[in-house]
Amino acid sequence: VVQSEQAKKRGRGGRVYGRSGILVQGRNWSHIGKPGISMELVETRGEVHHFTFEHSKAYQAIQFQFLDAVETFNPDNIVALLNIHPLHVDSLIQFSDVCKMGEDLQMAAELIERALYCLESCFHPLFNVTQGTGRLDYRRPENRSLFLALFKHLHFVGQRGCPRTALEFCKLLLGLDPENDPLCATLMLDYFALRADQYQYLVRLYQEWEPSRNLSQLPNFAFSTFSYFFFNTDAAGFLCWQLQDSLIMFPGVLTPLLDKCGIQPDAEVSKHHFFGLAAQAQQSPALSQLVSLFVGRHFGLWKEPEVLAWLERNVRVVLQRVDRGDPLVADSEAKRKRRYQGATPRNISRHILLSNIKEANLTLPQDLANAPIFGFDPLPPVDNIVSYTRPPRWESGMGQSPYLWGHMVSAFFRSLLPSFNLPREVVGIAVDDRLVPGNDDGDLQHEDIGGAAGIANDGAPHVVDAGDLRRSVTSLLEAMRDLLNNIHLPSDAPNDGDMDSDDEHED
């Protein structure tokens, strides 16, 4: 009451925090007060408003503590930070990945919802998610949390059997930066549209964007746009023609798609040079990644008997066209060689890492496989726009940041259990010798990962007990569950001065 009277006397119509519910429902979560994050309007171009998140000085200090905790590769430190700051967004996102690794999907999803709830409470009054006129620059680290939280949230929603809701979140994610699409929402937009039976939307999107974005050069759109016509007998001829052209453009799709569906192709197809092993070997790495993403994500939509029968008929027609020397075959081969060369764009690699599709993960280039990747900021843009930097801090005797210790998969396992050594067979890629933390005196040692055993300092193999890993993850999840169940924030947290002395924004 006193605070309300003081606010009235000041005559201030400050922004109300914690009264959200468009992105996620607050459940029984407490009023969060002022979280230390704000959203500012940068500029307006026509009807489009460009915004950016900003961190208060107090929140920046928490962010520095979080980065220090991440560098230890010990999730206990993140739990400790969340115990003090239960709504620190990046901590929630990072620990959600730990929960997901421990197969506690319910807690992983709740952590992401809490992160979205906190971010939504800070939205600018002009940032309207229903109109699609708000833009955020992914190059600013403060903005990435919303992108990543939306990406992870829509996947959890889709897994709960709500494809239409997941589609709307996917549209929102794309609308934050449709020109650059930093998380490649385009690569999954068609999938959720198909699952939600939004065929007309998919076709309209394809027709409007194809002239400027060449959606037909993405395997997912090349094969997905048939769905609207599949049940339309009047368009059956066009449908067969479209599918045949897609198979000619992307012959490397057929064999892995059938394998994923558990279908054995007949000898005529498997031994033909166009669809056989040669089709896989001739694909560039960039195209292989796109194909693997499509197969790993869409295969369930192709397992219907009527779809497989329709696919089989058109495959035989394609083989006849290839044997006849159809000009489209040579033209498509030339396009593949011209358009899919060079390194994979960074946003596609970022999408692969976040999607966690096994077939696509195995196609990642070696330079990414040898770099640690963290869920709160995977593959930061090379053209970062930094608004604040970490202060100089004490460096260990190693003289190097722990970020240099290993590649992404082993680094993530080490974040769960520091003594865990990941075998090459699990990673699926070659692992070079790498620097790891040495003895207590700060010396460096080399670690050779061979088979299922690491090599101890004395040269004897040290076998990692999988039970130790499970027990470590289980204990962490139990501690986090207890933490979430016992968070009791003030029901009327003050809107002024609890995190920062900065003035609040007026409407």
UniProtKB/TrEMBL annotation:
<protein>
    <submittedName>
        <fullName>Putative transcription factor 25</fullName>
    </submittedName>
</protein>
<feature type="compositionally biased region" description="Acidic residues">
    <location>
        <begin position="495"/>
        <end position="507"/>
    </location>
</feature>
<dbReference type="InterPro" id="IPR006994">
    <property type="entry name" value="TCF25/Rqc1"/>
</dbReference>
<feature type="region of interest" description="Disordered">
    <location>
        <begin position="487"/>
        <end position="507"/>
    </location>
</feature>
<dbReference type="Pfam" id="PF04910">
    <property type="entry name" value="Tcf25"/>
</dbReference>
